[in-house]
Amino acid sequence: MEKGDLLTLVGGLVLVLVIALVMNPHYLSSLSAPAETEPELLSPAAYLAKNPPPPTVSETAVPVVITTPAGPRPDDPPYRIVYTSQPYTYPRFKLPESMSIFGASDIPIRTEESVPFAYITDTRGGLTQYFSVPYPVWVLNTTVIANRTPQYGNFQMVLCYANNGSIIKGEEIFNRGNSHRIVQTSGTDMYLIITTAYIDSFYISLETPRSYYTAFRP
C-alpha cells in the first residue's frame, strides 16, 4: 500500500469518528464520566452512628440553684428593758436602808468576750418590768455619767426576784463611774429597783460570756 493511500484511509476513519460523535454525543459522556456505584444500604442504627442528629435545645430553661454555705448565726440586738407603770403592785418597791452590804464592784470577766443581750438606760429611777435571763452566768455592767455635778451624783440599784421581792444583787455608785455585778440566776422572772440623784444618765448593759451566749441563747 502506498503511503498516500494509507493517509487517505486514516483520514477517512477520523472523519467517520467525528461524524459519529457529532451524531451521538452521549457516547462521549459515557466515556468520560466515571461509573456510578450502588449506594450503601445502612441499618437505622448504623446510619445514626455515622450521622448523629444535631443536639436539640430545650424550650424550658432549667433554673440554676446557687447555694451558699450557712454561716454562724449573727448576734441578736440587745432588747431594751423599760420601767413599769405599776411599781406598787410589786412584792418589793423600796431599796434597803443600807446599800453598803453589797460591797465593791465585782472583778469583770475577762477570760472571753462578753455579749450584751439587754440594757436599760435613763436619767431617773424606777422599777423595771419583769424580765428573764436564759444564761446561767451573766453580768450587770453599769455606767453612771454625772458631768454637771459629779460631786453630788449617786446611783443605787438592786436586782430582785419577781415572785417574792428578795434581793439577788445590789450596788451603789457615788459621784460617777462604772461597776460590775456577776449574777448566777437564770430561768426566772426578775426586776430592777433603781434610784438616781444628781446624775446626767446611766446605762446598764446585761452581758454574758460568748460561750454561754452560744450555748443558751433562745
The span between the termini is 131 Å
Backbone CA Rg? 52 Å
- The 3D shape can be described as elongated
Q: What is the overall pLDDT average?
A: 82
Strand tally is: 10
Q: What do you see in this structure?
A:
The chain is of the alpha+beta class. The chain has a domain at 79-216: Jelly Rolls (Sandwich), CATH 2.60.120. It has four helices and ten strands. The protein has helices at residues 3-23, 26-32, 44-50, 210-216; strands at residues 79-80, 114-122, 126-127, 131-132, 138-145, 154-161, 167-174, 177-183, 189-197, 201-209. The protein has a five-stranded mixed β-sheet. Strand 6 (154-161) and strand 7 form a beta hairpin. It is elongated and about 150 Å long. The model is unreliable at 27-42 (pLDDT under 50).
Summarize the structure.
This protein has 218 residues and is of the alpha+beta class.
Write out key terms for the chains shown.
single chain, 218 residues, alpha+beta, Jelly Rolls, five-stranded mixed beta sheet, 4 helices, elongated
